[in-house]
Amino acid sequence: MAHYEGVIDRYREYLPVTDATPNVAMGEGNTPLVKSQSIGPELGCDLYFKLEGMNPTGSFKDRGMCMAVAKALEDGKSRLMCASTGNTSASASAYAARYGMEAIVLVPAGEIALGKLAQAMVYGARVLAVRGNFDDALEIVLRATTEMDIALVNSVNPYRLQGQKTAAFEIVDELGDAPHMLCIPVGNAGNITAYWWGFKEYWEAELSKTLPRMMGFQAEGASPIVQGKRVKNPETIATAIRIGNPANWENAEDARDASKGAISAVTDAEIIDTYLRLARDEGIFCEPASAASVAGLIKIASQGEDVAGQTIVCVITGNGLKDPSTAESTAHVELEYVEPKYDTVMGLLTNGSGRGR
Ligand SMILES: *Cc1c(COP(=O)(O)O)cnc(C)c1O
Predict the structure, then answer these.
(1) Closest atom of ligand 1 relative to the 184 alpha carbon
(2) How much is the pLDDT for 335?
(3) Max alpha carbon distance in the chain (Å)?
(4) Which CATH architecture has domain 7-59+160-330?
(5) CB burial class (10 A; 0-12, 13-18, 19+) of residue 346?
(6) Which of 208, 220, 311, 353 has the maximal Cβ count within 10 Å?
(7) Atom 13 (ligand 1): residue with closest C-alpha?
(8) Nearest to 30, CA basis, from 174, 202, 205
């Protein structure tokens, strides 16, 4: 079997690459599509989780970042810059490190999960913590990258979405057709756009017979597309989708409308319930933002959406290890300290059931 390099190598014919484009690769893509053991059977559908937290830096952002970095290198750039709620900066920093570029990342101060900040720092990026929100940081980055010779690698960079669409290809390659529904969290709305483009491209090439309904989910406190208006101070525990003015707003509406899908909201309580359920019933530890896709599916099913017998894929966008403080504050598990004595441990295990669920 040929050595797997990454999405550029695997899906070259569908990507904007030339002979001059370097094969930037770190094993991104080729992520597992895992069948649900608990939630799917309960809903009566064939439910799969696309585990994008298995990418090299722990989120789907790597699929698009390898494309953006390849094109920046092709263009002779030696610096890249992004504004980020965390995962974009982690990914940009990693690829920059691997390919000898300087990375400058602007993050909203105090609003970024610890694991993501740790990544940018260890990969050696210059990290600027902006005293404002993501939208403020992006505005600065947009201006800086037009005035200076620095590659912009936010998802307004068109190559990012080109790389990200490969996730849709993988799903069709594996299932033999598109699912009936794709459930996905929506922040800047780049990923829902990219998946839609990928499904459409395969369908136009007659590599799939059908197109999925695109079901996007925003957090209620950061749901501009659902409300139809910009949210000035977005608030949600799911920091990866805490976005008040999505860069790909119109593209997401197009994906929604053209696929007869929907974009709706889930509350933080629903996100956290599902985040814990995914871990405890499915063995999947994801980011709060990722749980929005599954929380949304459970919610629309409870509201009467007919999911029975359908093939449904929920995109699990990022790895739970990124955000240890949310894990600690929501799992409500007290460590049970115990003396290093066999009898004491046995006493605890035989006396009552412990913490339960
Ligand atoms: C970036 C990100 C999202 C949101 O994706 P958009 O393309 O901005 O809509 C969701 N979950 C995780 C873990 C992310 O890193």
Answers:
(1) 10
(2) 87
(3) 69
(4) 3-Layer(aba) Sandwich (3.40)
(5) exposed
(6) 208
(7) 318
(8) 174
Q: Which residue among 191, 294, 323 is best mutated to probe the pocket of ligand 1, counting the most ligand atoms within 8 A of its Cβ?
A: 191
What are φ and ψ of residue 131, in 5° steps?
Answer: -80, 75
Which residue's structure tokens are 């359908």? 310
Q: How far is CA 31 from the centre of its chain?
A: 12
| Residues 6+ away with beta carbon under 8 Å from 99 | 22, 24, 69, 73
Strands in 131-229 per DSSP E: 151-152, 181-185, 213-219
Give the C-alpha separation, 214 to 192, whole Å.
7
Q: How far apart are CA 38 and CA 40, in angstroms?
A: 6
Pairing of strands 151-152, 262-266: unpaired
190 lines ligand 1 (CB under 6 A): yes
The mean pLDDT value for 222-231 works out to 97
pTM, 2 dp: 0.95
* Type of residue numbered 38: S
Q: Which fold has domain 61-156?
A: Rossmann fold (3.40.50)
**CA distance to 89, 182, 319, 323, per residue, from 192 (Å):** 20, 9, 18, 23
C-alpha dist (Å) from residue 216 to 259, 274, 293, 323: 11, 16, 7, 22
Does ligand 1 have an atom closer than 6 angstroms to the CB of 189? yes
Per-domain boundaries in the chain? 7-59+160-330, 61-156
Nearest Cα residue to 101 out of 128, 119, 117, 125: 125
- Tell me the best of 31, 59, 82 to mutate to test the pocket of ligand 1, counting ligand atoms within 8 Å of each CB and taking the most: 59
Q: Encoding tokens for residue 348?
A: 């605890």
Q: Is a pLDDT exceeding 70 seen at residue 356?
A: no
Say what the alpha-carbon torsion angle 62, 68, 70, 73 is, to the nearest 10 degrees: -130
Q: Please give the average per-residue pLDDT across 310-328, as a whole number.
A: 96
Q: Taking 60 as the threshold, does the pLDDT of residue 353 lie above it? A: no
In this structure, which residue's CA is closest to atom 8 in ligand 1?
188
Residues 6+ apart with CB under 8 A from 154: 82, 83, 84, 88, 138, 141, 142, 160, 247
